[in-house]
């Protein structure tokens, strides 16, 4: 149980990061008219520029912006396979007591200074600091005692973390500039952030837009567009209007009926593909979800296939665990059947019926993902037919993060969960392990089952262990997985957009022609 005890002790509660506005610069209309400008109607606001601290750091939807400005240690291809980023080589020694990383020699920060091994050591040490505010500090704390030899960095393994290098391509896995950050401090960095990515910050108006300019010293391929503007358009109807009016060149996460309509227009094109994001309903271990019959009834009463086919126009893949097809621990044998009669009988055992329903609140976003609110409305209707009366409460995605961190979500809460590295630790693990600040279910049963898996060195045994946990969760109904998303992207004809399996819209990969 040593791994379990260390994991519990090192779990860090999420900390908010307050961002101060940059100078707004030119009006957005002027930026839009500039030659070589790509404008993206984006579905969330940017709360903070530091990609390693606070709740925004673990919001998968913001990572497209972060990856335009900052470089992850390790890159990912469109199919989620790993590739060199700032690190050109990485790995363990034979007994997995040391790690070795090699930094590329040709990377520069946006101020023109060179990216150094000292930046790597400082960034990783800062991420591991329990007082630093990194939401996954417990991952980065697994290595220390760094040594530098030329461009090579070595470190000792404090506790084996099987997905350490995967995290270097995922949330908070970004390199920051040591000398600049220490000079300006956290507040100064928010006012004028710099990274080593393909674009540098030019202007920012909170809740309105972010304008970026190409970084001339970027080590990778030169972006096709000199200027990129992210317009923050959180309402899906407004994003449709943006692309249809020509105000933006690309948008995404719009209603599927609008996607089908827009992709047929002569000036527009569309593309879709299943991505690593899933739609799910957190269940919080408070009344009435402490009742196993209620949880299972809530699971069995949902017709996921009908939701995908009728509400999402076929754009989705029904799932029954938090592992989507393509994830390392996906097990297609785990099924939770749609069975409303079974749901009724389960509720009857606890004294509930359609005339005496169990009542609770379900929280949901509205317009954050296509048909999110409508999906929850449909689920509430299905529940009503078996003896569950759900009150729907709308909240913003930022509220979800804040409530989840305080373990204050409603008994049921709809959410979009991203897992760009496809590992079970970052799906079932963080969503269901009680000590995790990302978990709504704090039950001892899962703490005891998941704890030993964090440090399992035998990969086959580790994956088998996660599959067993997923099976147990399905049998107990401790979460409601719904579907793997298919992302709708609409763009102007004449643009080539590279769809990413992680759902990111990366402006540096958009080209003309």
TrEMBL record:
One Gene Ontology cellular component annotation held by this UniProt entry: outer membrane-bounded periplasmic space
Principal localisation: periplasm
GO biological process: peptide transport
Highest taxon above the source species: Bacteria
Signal peptide feature range: 1-33
Location in or out of the cell: Periplasm
Protein's organism: Bradyrhizobium oligotrophicum S58
Protein name as annotated: Peptide ABC transporter substrate-binding protein
Family of this protein: Belongs to the bacterial solute-binding protein 5 family.
Keyword entries, A-Z: Signal
Pfam families recorded: SBP_bac_5
Source taxonomy: Bacteria, Pseudomonadati, Pseudomonadota, Alphaproteobacteria, Hyphomicrobiales
UniProt GO molecular function: peptide transmembrane transporter activity
Gene3D superfamilies, per the entry: Dipeptide-binding Protein, Domain 3 (3.10.105.10), Periplasmic binding protein-like II (3.40.190.10)
Cited PROSITE patterns: TAT
Domain Solute-binding protein family: 82-428
